[in-house]
Automatic annotation (TrEMBL), chain A:
This is Acyl-CoA dehydrogenase family protein. The keyword Amino-acid biosynthesis does not apply. The lineage of its organism: Bacteria, Bacillati, Actinomycetota, Actinomycetes, Kitasatosporales. Coiled coil: none annotated. Residues 121-214 form the Acyl-CoA oxidase/dehydrogenase middle domain. Its cofactor is FAD. It comes from Streptantibioticus silvisoli. Keywords: FAD, Flavoprotein, Oxidoreductase. Residues 6-117 form the Acyl-CoA dehydrogenase/oxidase N-terminal domain. InterPro entries: Acyl-CoA_DH_CS (IPR006089), Acyl-CoA_Oxase/DH_mid-dom (IPR006091), Acyl-CoA_Oxase/DH_mid-dom_sf (IPR046373), AcylCo_DH-like_C (IPR036250), AcylCo_DH/oxidase_C (IPR009075), AcylCoA_DH/ox_N (IPR013786), AcylCoA_DH/ox_N_sf (IPR037069), AcylCoA_DH/oxidase_NM_dom_sf (IPR009100).
Automatic annotation (TrEMBL), chain B:
SUPFAM superfamilies: ACP-like. Pfam families: PP-binding. Residues 24-77 form the Carrier domain. It comes from the Bacteria. This is Phosphopantetheine-binding protein.
Length: 376, 91
């Protein structure tokens, strides 16, 4: 066990940080204010090899170590939670296609997902089902021609649904149950409605997807009919929770940097109650990173303990981000409530970390019931 | 990665399930039917057999029956490794 980065990992982390500082952070406030990101960011991420980087070289990726992946998402999360969310859902789709797609599906879509020609989004949540895959109401009926399923239903709060070119959609087939389909945006019967005015990660371009007898070719089914849950959902959400955990650590660090600098500049860092808040940020960033990277290590090993480790990391780091952001606003006082300081954005973004990819209560339930058997 | 012999698969599987469930279970005991775990555990079992025994579970093998007991898992892994009889979901 080694708990400090190797020289190679440290160099990668520095490169990720440099990219985040130069290419992402300068646009974060605008992403938040305009509730969108420029499509150009997708190209810049692709040019840097940051889209679906876990894919092996044989499938067009760079075979990035999952530990390095966590460091990447921490650095991007520190700069802009909306861009980190873009990476999260895109990579969940790419990894699902790698693991559960047919060779033809992998060949068709993975190069486009790596190059940024196609942006992916994860379409699980529904108005009445939340992210409970077992309860999805969207229906996939076999078409009469035998070559298609017809999807009917509504997906809501789909991160980057406004921008994505392809969706991983979970729908219930009548005889088998939850099934995963890869659905191109241009399929007939699919309409995309923006969901503006969200509390946080406002640049993540949430959308509602409406399917009205949308025909999806049978060869765009992932896994097996009725087997999307728990198999595909678990592998995808494990990666998603790992990403959110790392991104949350990035938020804590952003809060720390803003708060320590502001408090020192205002001469209030000498106050012990302010020191307490800063100290909690320091420690929770370190602890959150350790939990996240442990999840990354287990993901890399294909360990059955990875899903629980990712849930634990996401639960801890998401709460730590919310706490840190609340304290960061407090340290800044009225200034922290204004758009002139980024901590107001961190505060709104951090709250989302306690909700997405399984809310705190879902995490608590999973950890409380099954965490004690998870290889501790 | 070399796949262990069937008796080793059985022993490692038994150890993993006993550890994960914090209880002793019979080799034929159906862990899903007994309510010891929820279906999410099936996904973890796929990861267990893939990481421990170096096999890849195919899409058409995502059947709870393959993962429901020590014996079912042993049959499945040894079948995949070409060292045992063909496993059937209804076994």
């Amino acid at each position: 066990m080694r708990l400090t980065p190797t020289p190679e990992l440290a160099a990668l982390r520095d490169r990720f940080r440099d990219f985040a500082d130069k290419e992402v952070a300068p646009h974060a406030a605008r992403h938040d204010a305009e509730e969108r990101v420029d499509r150009a960011i997708v190209g810049r991420l692709a040019a840097e090899g940051l889209l679906a980087p876990l894919l092996p070289a044989g499938l067009g990726g760079r075979g990035l170590d999952p530990i390095a992946y966590g460091l990447l998402h921490e650095e991007i999360g520190r700069a802009c939670s909306s861009v980190r969310s873009l990476l999260t859902v895109h990579d969940m789709v790419a990894d699902s296609v790698r693991r559960w797609g047919t060779p033809a599906l992998r060949e068709r879509w993975l190069p486009r997902l790596v190059s940024g020609e196609a942006l992916g989004a994860f379409a699980l949540s529904e108005p009445d089902a939340g992210s409970d895959a077992a309860a999805v109401a969207t229906v996939a009926r076999p078409g009469r021609d035998g070559g298609h399923h017809l999807l009917t239903g509504t997906k809501r709060w789909i991160t980057f649904g406004q921008l994505a070119d392809v969706f991983l959609v979970f729908a219930r087939t009548p005889d088998e149950g939850p099934t995963a389909f890869l659905v191109a945006r241009d399929r007939p019967g699919l309409s995309v409605e923006p969901l503006p005015g969200m509390l946080g990660t406002r640049g993540s371009m949430l959308a509602e997807l409406r399917f009205d007898d949308c025909p999806v070719p049978r060869d765009h089914l992932l896994g097996a009919p009725g087997r999307a849950h728990p198999f595909i959902t678990t592998s995808a959400l494990t990666l998603g929770r790992y990403s959110v955990a790392a991104g949350s650590v990035g938020i804590v660090r952003a809060c720390l940097e803003a708060s320590a600098g502001y408090a020192a500049g205002r001469g209030v860092l000498q106050h012990q109650l302010v020191q307490r808040m800063v100290a909690d940020m320091v420690v929770s960033a370190e602890a959150g990173r350790l939990l996240a990277l442990r999840a990354g290590e287990l993901i890399g090993a294909g360990s059955p303990h990875a899903p629980m480790a990712a849930t634990e990391a996401k639960y801890f780091a998401g709460r730590a981000a919310a706490d840190a952001a609340r304290d960061a606003v407090q340290i800044h006082g009225a200034a922290g409530c204004s758009p002139d300081h980024p901590v107001a954005r961190y505060y709104r973004d951090a709250k989302v970390m306690e909700i997405i990819e399984g809310g705190n209560e879902v995490s608590q339930t999973m950890i409380g019931r099954f965490g004690h058997t998870a290889g501790h | 990665m070399s796949t262990p012999e069937p008796h080793e698969v059985r022993e490692q599987t038994r150890q993993y399930l006993t550890s994960s469930l914090s209880r002793q279970i019979g080799d034929d005991e159906d862990i899903f039917a007994a309510g010891f775990v929820n279906s999410l555990f099936a996904a973890q079992l796929v990861m267990f057999v893939e990481s421990r025994f170096g096999i890849e579970v195919e899409n058409n093998e995502l059947e709870l029956a393959y993962f429901s007991s020590v014996n079912a898992l042993t049959d499945f892994v040894t079948y995949k490794a070409g060292k045992g009889r063909a496993a059937q979901p209804c076994d």
